[in-house]
Amino acid sequence: MQQTGWTRPLSLVFARAFVLLVVVPVLALGVATVFSSGGSAGAASASGSGGSGNYSGGMMMAADPTGGFWTVTPSGAVTPHGSAPALGSPALSNLHLTRPVVGMASTPDGHGYWLVASDGGIFNYGDAAFYGSTGAIRLNMPIVGLAPTPDGHGYWLVAFDGGIFTFGDAGYYGSTAGKGTFAYGLIVNPAAAGYSVVTADGSATSFGPSAPASNIQPSSPPSTTTTTTRPTRSTTTTTHPAATTTTTTRAPRTTTTTRAPGTTTTTGPSGTTTTTGASGTTTTTGLAIASALSTGVLQQGAYVASANPSGMTSFARQTETSPAVATQYLPGNAGWAGMDGSGGSLSWLLNPWQGSGYTLSLGVPIIPTSSSGTAVGTLAQGATGAFNSYYVTLAQTLVAGGQGNAYLRLGWEFDGSWMHWAATTPSAEASFASYFQQIVTAMRSVPGEQFRFVWNPDAGAFTQSGYSVASAYPGNAYVNVIGLDAYDQSWATPQTPTNAWSSTTLPTLTAAAQFASAHGKPLAFTEWGVAIRSDGHGLGDDPYFIDQMAAWMENPANGVTYETYFDDNSGGVNSLITGGSFPNSLAAFSAAFG
Q1: Residue 221's closest CA among 263, 158, 280, 273?
Q2: CA distance 109 to 128
Q3: pLDDT score, position 462
Q4: Rounded distance, CA 369 to CA 222, Å?
Q5: Does the CA dihedral 307-310-311-313 come out positive or negative?
Q6: Is the bond leading into 583 cis (omega within 30 degrees of zero)?
Q7: 357 φ, ψ to 5°?
Q8: Residues 6+ apart with CB under 8 A from 350
Q9: Which of 58, 99, 286, 342 could be disulfide-bonded to 117 (CB atoms 3.0-4.6 Å)?
Q10: CA pseudo-torsion sign 310, 540, 550, 517
Q11: Under a CB-based contact definition with an 8 Å cutoff, are residues 542 and 505 in contact?
Q12: Are the C-beta atoms of residues 80 and 86 closer than 8 Å to each other?
């Protein structure tokens, strides 16, 4: 559960069975492999050169302007339908994708198409030309969509945070990056140069060369929108007077009706949105909104005891997976100087990871101790800003060490009495929230930072009697991700895998997802794993837990953005899936995430 300076506690003050992963196979926020593929005959799943006449389970689609359409899966299998030509695909070429495909777009004449992966890698087929990619760029957020220019001689890519990347004759006119919104994709109107960034609330912000950016609200759309919903993704086709542009949204349970002028949109409890117009009333659940916040891209990761990439390589080999996020912990037993990196105290940790391509998920001990174990501060002191200078130093250290985009788990498991920063009383909860605000404000003041701040209780905190997660929450402006620590352990009777899941784990995950959705934040499983406990409350080799967690994480409605399996055996709890103790769980893990 912790690294240097911390031990995994057995006195979990609640029946803590926690579990989960995140959506789609392992992905990283940045290390890209770029492909420029020439056209070739055939299709990944086509029946004859003309393609299949039936929908074959493709998870994204693009329309062929001459008739028909294509579907594509995250693994790059393209299927033509109707009269759409078979032009090739990564799957047909036996390419193993390092990142999943998240978007597809056709050339204007329908004789080619582009695919884009979450790292911005571009695959081009037919007469679709390669104009560049974000392969050489370390992305802060994954790419979620692609749209070509009207003449097909360029294209725009949009990232989850609304950042825009231009290639070929695509012009840059602005973006929604830094505005606190999350992007679904892009809309391009051939009749007016420019583009619109579609955001998670259903609105679109327009940018063009002849006018300043303007907001198009969902209540008065400029076009007719139809949404087809599939079990795991939905594809939205927006029809304009001159052409059709398709964007992909990984948001099941979303239903959109054709909106006429005069349509109104209202937002209700827990993120529920109700749209009323001439065609009727449609309600979008908060969980569907949360699923969009997860980007549809589940980043896979792990914690390994080795503070270097070689440990991750070993984990990847033994689990047959491709982790992209590495969990590590800053020292909590060497005072402020050991935690903030002053005098090079964190070089042992940062140097091995610099340039490795991994994104770090760092546990940050907000009340470290001296070498003798004495706490060097209190939550109440932190709430006044007394320790802000240490976090400025930490931010500078991380940026200089190439980790300016790390996930930072500030005071993780703060609901646990085993932590020096335990927030287990109303006053401590309030102090923790204020202290969290102080830290975020201090670290954001450092040039070059692009940190993602993770508010990280144990999953059981959301259902624990008498505990108020709301009181300890610092506010949406200070939180990027809600993290959960979830292990296969239970005090339920009978102590069987199915009962532990249904009576302990699932209720906590459901409550956490509802909380995250209400606040418009994605979830992450910052620690999770099977467990053998010395007190007998671990379920042991439990592939059922792995399967259930994987399914829960991979369900876009739950809004999970990344997961890191805790591959360790310490503090009386063994979760080391690569150590031989859990052969059945290891097989299930490899099957689910490999």
Answers
A1: 263
A2: 10
A3: 96
A4: 58
A5: positive
A6: no
A7: 90, -10
A8: 341, 397, 398, 401, 402, 403
A9: 99
A10: negative
A11: no
A12: yes
- CA dist 567 and 581 (Å) reads 12
- 527, 328 contact by CB (below 8 A): no
The pLDDT value given to residue 136: 65
pTM: 0.58
Q: How many helices (H) and strands (E) does the chain have?
A: 12, 30
Distance in angstroms (rounded) separating the CA atoms of residues 247 and 293? 16
**pLDDT of amino acid 578:** 96
CA gap 549, 585 in Å, rounded: 12
* Contact (Cβ atoms closer than 8 angstroms) between residue 147 and residue 156: yes
Contact between 162 and 177 (Cβ < 8 Å): yes
Q: Mind listing the pLDDT tens digit for each residue in 543-580?
A: 999 999 999 998 888 999 999 999 999 888 999 999 99
Q: Are 529 and 488 in contact (CB under 8 A)?
A: yes
Query: Tokens 């059709």 — which residue?
Result: 244
Q: What pLDDT score does 140 carry? A: 73
Read off the tokens for 40. Answer: 């070739």
More confident residue, 421 or 570: 421
- Report the alpha-carbon distance of residue 3 to residue 459 in Å, rounded: 20
Cβ contact 458:417 at 8 Å: no
> What value does the mean pLDDT of the chain take?
77
User: Which of 21, 20, 16 is closest to 500 using CA atoms?
Assistant: 16
* E strand or H helix that includes residue 436: helix 426-444
3-state secondary structure (DSSP) of residue 489:
strand
Closest CA relative to residue 299, chosen from 166, 454, 155: 454
pLDDT value at 207 more than 60: yes
- What pLDDT score was predicted for residue 409? 98
Mean pLDDT of the 4-26 span: 31
As beta bridge partners, residue 206 has: 196, 214
Query: Residue 41, class by beta-carbon neighbours within 10 Å (0-12 exposed, 13-18 middle, 19+ buried)?
Result: exposed
C-alpha closest to that of 441 among 453, 429, 430: 453
Look up residue 501 and give its DSSP letter.
I
